[in-house]
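Supplementary Methods S3. Complex input for the pyridoxal-5'-phosphate-bound model.
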Amino acid sequence: MVDTARLRAYNSWWQARSDAWSQLEEASGQLASAARTGQPGTGLIETASGLLGSLGPVERYWAFPGPEACRLARDLLAAASYSRFASLVAELNRALVTESYRAGTGWPAVSARPAAARPAESTPAPARPYFEVLVVEPLTPAQEHSLREEVRGWRRPSDHFVYELVIVGSAEDALVAARLNANLQACVIRRGFAAAADHDLSSLAQFADSSIAADLAGQPADERAQILGRRLARLRPELDLYLMTEVDVENVAGRLSHHFRRVFHAQEGALELHLTLLAGVAARYRTPFFEALRHYSHRPTGMFHALPISQGKSIVSSHWISDMAGFYGLDIFLAETSATGGGLDSLLEPTGPLRQAQELAAETFGARRTFFVTNGTSTANKIVAQALIAPGDIVLVDRNCHQSHHYGLMLSGAQVTYLDAYPLHQYSMYGAVPLREIKSRLLALRAAGKLDRVKMLMLTNCTFDGIVYDVQRVMEECLAIKPDLVFLWDEAWFAFARFHPVYRARTAMRAARTLAERLQSPDYRASYAGPDPAADDETLLATRLQPDPARARVRVYATQSTHKTLTSLRQGSMIHVHDQDFAQRVAESFHEAYMTHTSTSPNYQILASLDLGRRQAALEGFELVAKQVESAMRLRDAIDNHPLLSRYMRCLSTPELIPAEFRESGIDLPLHYGLASMSAAWETDEFVLDPSRISLYIGPTGIDGATFKREQLMDKFGIQINKTSRNTVLFMTNIGTSRSSVAYLIEVLVAIVRDQENTVAELSPLGQAAQAAAVLKQTSPCAPLPDFSGFHPAFLDHQAAGNPTPEGDVRRAFFLSYDDTSCEYLQPDEAGQRLDAGQPVVSATFVTPYPPGFPVLVPGQLFSQEILAYMHGLDTPEVHGYDPQAGYRVYTAKALEMAQHGTSPAGPAAPGRAGSG
Ligand SMILES: Cc1ncc(COP(=O)(O)O)c(C=O)c1O
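Predicted complex, serialized as C-alpha cells:
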C-alpha cells in the first residue's frame, strides 16, 4: 500500500513528484491486473486516486505530463478503464523517467488522446534542448489547448531549441510555477491575469506567496504586470520576461522596467514573440570562448611555437605515450593552443570571445564585472588583496580564513586585525565572526584615529562548515561606521548560491546590488536620520546602524571556486566585482595584480570550462541547486531516522552550530518545515546554516574524524570527503550528487556502524574499556579553541605606538624569519616554561593544523598557554609549520628587540598610509 502522506517536499517537488509517478505506475499496474481477474479492491482504487489527487495540483505547473494528461487519467480511472489507465500512466512515467518528453513532441499516449491534441510536428524531432515557457493569462481548457497547438505550429526543424507552454491564470500561480518548474526559461505576462489563484493551494502552501495578491490590489494593469515581473525576477532572475498587451504598446514600452526583455502587441506579435523566446535562450546558451576554441581546434595549423602537445602532435606519433591520447581522446589536444589570435583571445588583455565570456558570466552572477582565474580562488584572493591594499592599509580579516588571505595580506604589507569567530568547543570547530565583533573593532580603530587607514573587511561566506552571514546587514552596518570600506567575500564554496532563490539574498553580488539600490532610493534618502551623535560605543554596538546614503560607497568583491560547486575543470575560479569606484580607483592596480598572479600561458581548457559552467548555471542552475538541496535534506533524514545509525551519529542541525543569540527568528530547523520557514530564518537571522553541507557528529562511535575519513570512508569504500574535525566529518552535496550516491553513502555508513558494533561486541574486557574511553574522549569537550592572542609589540602598528588597537604587520614578521639567526626552535614544554617565566614566545611561521586548516599561529603572533594546550590536545596527523622533532620555530629575544627598535634585518616598520586608493 502506498502512503501518499509521505510525498513530502522540502524545497522542490522533484523527488516527491518522480516518486509519486512511479508509485502511481505501480498502483495502476496492480489495478489493471486485478481488473483482468475480477473486481479490484477499493484499497487499490483509493491508492491510485490518492496519488493522482496529490499530483493534480502540481501538474498544472508543468507542460508535461501537465493538467491535460492528469484530467484524462482521472477520467479513465473514474470510468473504471483500468487497463487504459495503466498504460497511460506507464507511458507518461516512462517519458518522465527517460526524459523523452524533452523531444517536445507532446505527451506520448497518442492512442488515448483526442486527435486534435496530437503534436503538429510529425517528423521525428532532432535532439535539441528543451524548455518551457510560462504564460500568465486566464484561459479556458479549450483556449489553452489551441494556444499550445498554435505555438507548436510555429516550430521549424532549424530551430535550435524546442519549447512547450505552461499556462496559469493568476500571479499567485505564476510564482508557484516559478518556484516549482525548473524547465521554465521564459515567462509571457498578459495584462488580464488574476491576482489570486482560483483553486486551493493549501497542499503547496510552502511554495505559494499570497502577499502578491495584496501587492496587486488596486493597481492599474501595467503596474500589475511590472509588480509581477519584479517578483518573478527576484525568484528567478534568469527567466526572460515578456509583456503582451492589447493597448498602447508604444507607451507601455517606454515605462517598462529593466526586468522585461520586450513588450509585444497581442495581435501582431505572436511569431515575433516565438522567435524572441528562442533568441532569449540562445543568448544564455552562447559560450563565446568555448565556441572559438572548438572552431580553432579544427583548423589545420603549422606549429612553430612552444607547446608541442598542441593538436596532439607530440603524442600521436610517440612510441611511448600514445595511451595518453587513448585515455583523454584527441579533442582535448586539438584544443591545446597558445594562440591568442585567429579568433582566440588573451586572458591578460581580453578583447574578443574571452571578454564576451566574462561579460556573460557577470550577467549570470549578477556582477558588474567578472574576471576568470585559472589558478583557483587561492590566486583570486591574492589578486584582490594586491589590487586593493597598499602597505600600511588596515585590513580586518577572519583569523580562520583560507591561507591564501594570510599570504595575500603578507604580500601586500597590510596591517592585519584578526577577527575571532565564535567557537564550537564541543565539535572543535569555529562558527563565523559576529557582527558585534567586527563593529567593535571598527569603533576601536575610529577611537584611535585610524579609521582613514582601514581599507578592507575579508570574510568567508559560507564557511567550510556552512555558516552563512547576513551579507547585506554586515555591509550596511560597517559602512555606517566606515563609508568607503571595501569588502572581499570569499565565496569559494558558495558559487552555487546565486541559483537558489533563498540563498541568493546572502551572496555578495546580490547584497551589493540591493544595497546600491537602497542607498539610491529616494525613500531611504529621505528617511535617513544618521546616528545619534551622543551615542556611546555600547549603544552603537546594540543598534542596527544604517549607512549614510550621501557618503557610503558600494565596493564589493567576491571570489568563487567555480570548480568546487559548479561545473569547471579544477582551478577554474571567478572574481566578481560590484565596485562603484572600480573604473576610477582600481582598474589599473587590478590589472597589475592580475598580471602579477596570472600565468602568461593560461590553461584554455579551464577557461572554456568556465564558459560552459556559466552556460549551465544560467540555464539549469536553478534546477541543479534545488535538487542538490533536496538530496541533502533526504540524506539528513535517512541518517537521523535510521534506527541503527542514529545510535552512533547524527547530522548537526542549526541550533548545534549557531547559538540562539544569532538566530533572531527562533526557527531551529529552517528548511525542515519548508521553504517558507527557511526564507523567514534567512531573512532575519545573523547566521544561518547551508543545509546542503552536512556535519555528521560521530563522537559515539569512538572513532575520530580523521580516522573515520581515512580508514573507513576512503580506504574501505572509496568515499571522498574534504573536512573533518575531532568528532565530525563533513559531507558536502553538490550539483552532481545523485539519489544513488546518497543511497550508497547510507549503505556505507550502515556497514561501518555494523562492523564497528560487531568488533566492539567481540572485544576483551580490556578492549571494551578502551573503547568506552575512546567514546568518552570523542564526546567530551577538548581544550577550548584559542582566540587570536595578539602580535608581539615588535610587529604592532609602529606609526601610532601606544594605541590600543591590535593590528600587526605580518609581512615584517614573515620576512624576519628569512634570517636564520633571528630564529630558534622550542619544544612545547620549553615554550610553556618561558611563558611561565613571563618571557614572550613569538611564532616565526604560520602554524596550521590540518584539519581544521586555519593557522593557529601566524608570524609575529604571541604564544599563550591556551594555544599550547589546544595544540597538545590535537590528534591531527598533519600540522603545517611545526616539526615535532625540532619544535616550534620562534623568534629569538634579540631579534625581537632589534625588530622593536627598527634595527632588525627586516628593516624598519612599514609606514602607515592614509586614504590609499
Ligand atoms: C574558504 C576558501 N577560500 C579559498 C580556497 C582556495 O580555493 P581554490 O582551491 O579554488 O584555490 C579554499 C579552498 O579550500 C577555501 O576553503
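Residues 31 and 42 are 10 Å apart (CA to CA). The chain is about 45% helix and 10% strand.
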